[in-house]
């Protein structure tokens, strides 16, 4: 029976109350000592062969008969108004089929109404002006050159501090301050807390704009069959794209089908529909042919979102014994021209440590730069870097080991809500990580291995994040007449191994070998609803529904088998994909029962139950870094990262270690090499390519030691799992920055820690 | 990318005559040119493929020198026995150039003639002086990767790793063409761009590099190439230093110090070289030579770090060669 319940859902560090429909009864959580044969075992990807042989179809690979190509003309100015546009010459070019722009396209509100699909006002260099549809991409490019746009160039502002000054150019009519006011949080009395402090440390920290640089750029292929639209989209949320496109085109939802089988990375930048999807759909309608609009690398780095830059001021007070008395944390965030939400960085400050007096202020500012989008643990990567740097400074001032200082302020219950945690394995992660890096011997190691020009340093940082997942999420498990099973959901595998983990859950529940389980996902028409794959929520949302569906299917299968085989239920079980008569030890193939049943199929249904009430569900971790700083070249090489995290039960240890390594490598790029560079005179991105925007290469990757505190969470859901997608990137930059400060004996408060910054600091010594 | 005609050149003479047609560009490995075509920085109407020229892809050991055809790939040169034995500085320079995949395609001639990496030059929406525009946008812009020596109208730096190493070996270059012809010192082949000749080599539009000649004048293992990058690999240099020494007993008989990433051309620092002549190398001398190497450097707004970096690389290179000798 369907029940409507109100549940608290956490997403990207924010909490929302939602009504959801729960179907049927949830299962009790797997016990902590439950014996498994598939869950908890390292499992290579069930779609690994398709991936490595190239058989896997990504959105970029979709080729439809008669398909046309689209290419977007983008504003060369950071702020301008289109006075007029003349597309006649472009349209006359042979092979050009259509040119969409503000005069001929419907006025479709975009980015929460801050702009239109084709807006006459352009708010950053890269904003969409027109879209050419032609027979191939080269013709599109030639046509773009032939479009004549008469721009009225407007004054612009790039610096968030200047954007708040009176008289600054307005990015939006509603003003440059997001939602008209800073986002302020207070607990206790901040001034009282500083008055009680024996020691106070202060600092200003700056973080850069980081670009996602998904290997597969954003894009869509759209095609119509009559009044029905199908879109292949490189997205983290097929249902979200369906809803946005349906709304934009004023279509009923059932007329829009969104598909995505494989994806080359999203990291938050593909959480919602892109303009390219609607442009492809409109153009496909106009031309009567399939249309592909895929961003190139340059566009990807202008228009597909970014981790915004921040200027963070922190002030931390503590007693002589290390007990925190007050933390003040102000963050100015440069959102660029558009945003979905504030993007503040002070979350970790509110949630990581016990501290009676806290005030945080997030000032999120619109400027004439490329738009903000979620980027793997938005805000928390930047905030953790600043907070954990400050904690290190405090430890130094108190003459305390920084790990000891963290332990002295350990939060046994959630300091922000006063609720207990469902589970918290941070203490174990601290201790295990310290052992693995030999934390207590680090001073001796430093002295032994440092030379005049190569300085060794050690540092650490902590991680807190959500990752509870939650309803609504549904699943079906079908058992075919040949004795195989299919998991059907409306989720998407964004490259994290969702398919494999869901197959493990279903196989374990059905007592099937994993080779007999297929997973179908990534299709709004065939799947049942599942949420977006973001916020470290996919497995913790969809996995429990899959288990319920599999258990439902297993029970039905047993009932049918018992009657067909004329064996009592209590003598029958399923073992490795076959029936086993426990009395006679007879083994019977599952397909035997279906042979008598005219292709009967079993369909199990499952829904994700609600999250526990008045409990905090969080993930935790600690990372430790060992670095070597070359004082002659200013280069930091990370020698070792130890990462120990707690995210509830581990379903697939192999996938988790890969996920941790990926997060750490991305965090390492943020700490050391990655930064968008903009010319302030023109608002132009100068390094929107993979040569000048430096992501780490294989040679930059240090020895990485990962471990999980495998701690099944008895309350979060029936699997005991929490998310792990975002947690591993959160503490990496903080740990590396602390290690660099340790090596140099001084702190550089601005990321990334590039050779020029290091050399500058050393030269000024 | 804009469409173009593609013509295979059967030999050097035909290539040179084909190149005389305006709007024509030569392509060999294509690792640099293709990126410019894709970004529409260059839009030639005709591309002349040089790879069909049969007698330009060789590495030949001769009595007095090693001769390398312009079409030899960086990988072929890197793996060549004599290069590894006698010219480790060149092997080192190639091994830190780009990536193995790029080195398999990139040619010697292309590497020496490549375009600058200045992000204003490479930006499709910026028409800078080097692209026949009116001004250098880096001068008052983000110039953290730019020149500290010889700043002229253009302050982009020459990106080749091979060029400093080859100049340190006293290499010569052979050119076929209409404007320049014959053999000259590689050091003289590179120029700072001028108002009327906006490029970093002497080559005219219809000229081709055909061969590089490395004389056997330095003993083996006497050269080192150090390259500072933002990450461990696959990056153009922030600064690099090619240091080549000829020893006489414990003393330096002759030295070459050529810096990369500091000027519009590979930058040879003769004053610093002269300080080494007849000396035994000590840490103190290495430091002084490093300082002398950057004595005339002038920092722009964002690139002051290059001065200590160049100084330190020279010092490190000299000490490394002393270590290798011992």
UniProtKB/TrEMBL annotation, chain B:
Q: Which GO terms describe its molecular function?
A: FAD binding; oxidoreductase activity
The FAD-binding PCMH-type domain extends over: 1-219
Known SMART domains for this protein? CO_deh_flav_C
InterPro entries recorded for this chain? CO_DH_flav_C, CO_DH_flav_C_dom_sf, Diverse_Substr_Oxidored, FAD-bd_PCMH, FAD-bd_PCMH-like_sf, FAD-bd_PCMH_sub1, FAD-bd_PCMH_sub2, Mopterin_DH_FAD-bd
Which first-to-last residue range defines the signal peptide? none
**Domain of life from the UniProt record:** Bacteria
- What this protein is called in its record is FAD-binding PCMH-type domain-containing protein
Q: Which organism is it from?
A: Fraserbacteria sp. (strain RBG_16_55_9)
């Amino acid at each position: 029976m369907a029940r409507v319940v109100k549940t608290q859902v956490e997403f990207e560090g924010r909490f929302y109350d939602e009504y959801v429909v729960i179907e049927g009864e949830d299962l009790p959580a797997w016990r902590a000592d439950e014996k498994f044969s598939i869950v908890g075992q390292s499992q290579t990807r069930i779609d690994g062969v398709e991936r490595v042989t190239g058989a896997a179809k990504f959105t970029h690979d979709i080729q439809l008969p008669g398909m046309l190509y689209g290419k977007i003309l983008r504003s060369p100015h950071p702020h301008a108004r289109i006075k007029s546009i003349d597309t006649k010459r472009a349209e006359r070019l042979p092979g050009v089929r259509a040119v969409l722009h503000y005069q001929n396209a419907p006025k479709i509100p975009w980015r929460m109404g801050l702009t239109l699909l084709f807006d006459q006002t352009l708010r950053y260099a890269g904003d969409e002006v027109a879209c050419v549809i032609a027979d191939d991409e080269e013709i599109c490019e030639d046509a773009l050159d032939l479009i004549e746009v008469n721009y009225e160039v407007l004054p612009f502002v790039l610096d968030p501090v200047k954007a708040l000054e009176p008289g600054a150019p307005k990015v939006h009519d509603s003003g440059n301050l997001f939602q008209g006011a800073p986002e302020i949080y207070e607990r206790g009395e901040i001034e009282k807390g500083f008055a009680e402090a024996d020691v106070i440390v202060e600092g200003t920290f700056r973080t850069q704009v980081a670009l996602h640089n998904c290997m597969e750029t954003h894009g869509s292929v759209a095609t119509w069959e009559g009044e029905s639209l199908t879109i292949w989209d490189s997205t983290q949320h097929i249902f979200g794209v369906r809803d946005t496109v349906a709304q934009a085109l004023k279509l009923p939802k059932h007329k829009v089908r969104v598909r995505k089988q494989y994806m080359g990375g999203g990291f938050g930048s593909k959480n919602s529909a892109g303009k390219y999807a609607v442009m492809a759909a409109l153009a496909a309608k106009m031309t009567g042919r399939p249309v592909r609009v895929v961003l190139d690398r340059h566009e990807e780095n202008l228009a597909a979102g970014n981790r915004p830059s921040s200027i963070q001021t922190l002030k931390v007070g503590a007693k002589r014994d290390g007990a925190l008395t007050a933390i003040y944390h102000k963050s100015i965030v440069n959102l660029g021209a558009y945003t979905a939400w504030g993007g503040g960085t002070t979350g970790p400050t509110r949630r990581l440590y016990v501290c009676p007096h806290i005030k945080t202020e997030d000032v999120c500012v619109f400027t004439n730069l490329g738009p903000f989008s979620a980027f793997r643990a938005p805000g928390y990567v930047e905030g953790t870097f600043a907070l954990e740097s400050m904690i290190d400074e405090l430890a130094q001032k108190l003459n305390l080991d920084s790990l000891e200082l963290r332990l002295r302020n350990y939060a046994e219950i959630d300091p922000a809500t006063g609720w207990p945690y469902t589970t918290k394995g941070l203490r174990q992660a601290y201790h295990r990580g310290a052992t693995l890096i030999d934390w207590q011997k680090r001073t001796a190691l430093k002295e032994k291995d440092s030379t005049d020009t190569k300085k060794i340093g050690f540092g650490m940082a902590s991680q807190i994040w959500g990752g509870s997942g939650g309803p609504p999420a549904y699943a079906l498990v079908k058992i075919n007449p040949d004795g195989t099973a299919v998991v059907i959901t409306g989720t998407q595998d964004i490259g994290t191994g969702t398919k494999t983990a869901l197959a493990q859950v279903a196989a374990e529940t059905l007592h099937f070998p994993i080779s007999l389980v297929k997973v179908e996902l990534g299709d709004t028409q065939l799947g049942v609803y599942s949420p977006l794959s973001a916020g470290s929520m996919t497995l913790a949302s969809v996995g429990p529904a899959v288990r319920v569906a599999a258990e439902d299917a297993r029970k039905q299968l047993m009932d049918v088998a018992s009657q067909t085989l004329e064996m009592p239920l209590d003598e029958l079980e399923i073992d490795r994909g076959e029936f086993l008569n426990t009395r006679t030890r007879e083994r019977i193939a599952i397909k035997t029962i279906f042979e008598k049943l005219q292709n009967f199929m079993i369909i199990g249904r499952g829904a994700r139950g609600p999250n526990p009430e008045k409990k905090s569900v969080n993930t935790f971790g600690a990372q430790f870094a060992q670095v070597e700083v070359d004082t002659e070249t200013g280069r930091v090489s990370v020698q070792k990262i130890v990462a120990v995290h707690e995210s509830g039960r581990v379903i697939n240890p192999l996938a988790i270690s890969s996920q941790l390594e990926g997060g750490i490598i991305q965090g390492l790029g943020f700490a050391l090499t990655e930064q968008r560079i903009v010319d302030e005179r023109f608002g132009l991105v100068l390094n929107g390519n993979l040569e000048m925007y430096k992501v780490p290469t294989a040679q930059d990757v240090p020895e990485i030691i990962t471990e999980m505190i495998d701690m099944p969470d008895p309350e979060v859901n029936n699997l005991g799992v929490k998310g792990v997608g975002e947690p591993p990137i959160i503490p990496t930059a903080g740990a590396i920055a602390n290690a660099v400060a340790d090596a140099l004996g001084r702190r550089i408060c601005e990321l990334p820690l590039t050779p020029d910054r290091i050399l500058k600091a050393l030269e000024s010594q | 990318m804009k469409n173009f005609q593609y013509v295979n050149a059967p030999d050097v003479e035909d290539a040179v005559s084909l190149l005389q047609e305006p709007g024509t560009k030569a392509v060999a490995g294509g690792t640099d040119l293709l990126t410019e075509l894709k970004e529409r920085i260059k839009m030639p109407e005709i591309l002349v493929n040089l790879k069909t020229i049969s007698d330009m892809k060789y590495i030949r050991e001769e009595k007095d020198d090693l001769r390398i055809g312009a079409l030899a790939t960086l990988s072929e040169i890197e793996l060549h026995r004599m290069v590894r034995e006698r010219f480790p500085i060149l092997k080192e320079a190639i091994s830190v150039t780009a990536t193995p995949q790029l080195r398999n395609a990139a040619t010697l001639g292309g590497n020496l003639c490549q375009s600058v990496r200045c992000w204003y030059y490479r930006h499709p929406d910026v028409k800078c002086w080097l692209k026949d525009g009116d001004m250098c946008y880096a001068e008052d812009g983000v110039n953290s990767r730019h020149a500290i020596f010889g700043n002229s109208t253009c302050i982009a730096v020459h990106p080749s790793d091979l060029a400093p190493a080859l100049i340190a070996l006293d290499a010569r270059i052979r050119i076929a063409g209409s404007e320049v012809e014959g053999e000259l010192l590689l050091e003289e082949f590179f120029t700072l761009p001028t108002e009327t000749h906006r490029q970093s080599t002497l080559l005219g539009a219809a000229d081709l590099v055909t061969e590089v000649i490395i004389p056997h004048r330095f003993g083996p293992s006497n050269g080192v190439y150090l390259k500072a990058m933002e990450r461990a690999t696959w990056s153009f240099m922030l600064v690099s230093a090619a240091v080549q020494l000829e020893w006489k007993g414990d003393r330096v008989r002759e030295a070459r110090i050529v810096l990369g990433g500091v000027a519009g051309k590979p930058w040879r620092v003769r004053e610093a070289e002269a300080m080494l002549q007849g000396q035994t190398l000590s840490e103190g001398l290495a430091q002084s030579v490093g300082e002398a190497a950057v004595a005339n450097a002038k920092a722009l707004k964002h690139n002051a770090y290059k001065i200590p970096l160049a100084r330190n690389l020279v010092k490190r290179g000299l000490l490394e060669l002393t270590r290798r000798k011992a």
